[in-house]
Amino acid sequence: MQTLVLTFVSLGNVTTREAIDWALTYPKIVKGITVIARVMNDIMSHEREQATDHMASTVQTCMKQYGVTVEEAIEKLKIVLEEAWMDMMQDYLEQKYPMTLLKKGISFGQSIDFFCKREDLYTLPSNLKATLTSLYVKFA
């Protein structure tokens, strides 16, 4: 949430005091982003983190709460992610708040999705090298 609010503040004059106050009320789009960030990161980093002394993750909590396997917990958490996206899109489509902020919120969620969808690029950013190279280097 703090990173998203800082993103809003970085927009300068576009972001009013009312917009920040709105973001701090934890609307659906902000809640969705925080859920997506936490759950996607926990799904991606679960195995690696369990190899060391680490605090319980969302995956472990889900496993314990429902008495399910890792795979089943991840499937349940994917439903939570889908619901978070639907909530975000509802706020976006209702357009009750400044569109610039709503678009930034959606873009922020998409960035989290990119960083955590296939591998943990947030914790292991060196894995981004091939992707960034393909974006900026023209092959003959």
Automatic annotation (TrEMBL):
The protein, known as: Terpene synthase metal-binding domain-containing protein
Keywords: Metal-binding
Gene3D superfamilies: Farnesyl Diphosphate Synthase
Record PANTHER family: OS04G0344100 PROTEIN-RELATED, TERPENE SYNTHASE
Organism: Digitaria exilis
One protein family per Pfam: Terpene_synth_C
Top-level taxonomy: Eukaryota, Viridiplantae, Streptophyta, Embryophyta, Tracheophyta
Superkingdom of this protein's organism: Eukaryota
Protein's GO biological process: terpenoid biosynthetic process
GO molecular function: magnesium ion binding; terpene synthase activity
Annotated Terpene synthase metal-binding domain residues: 3-87
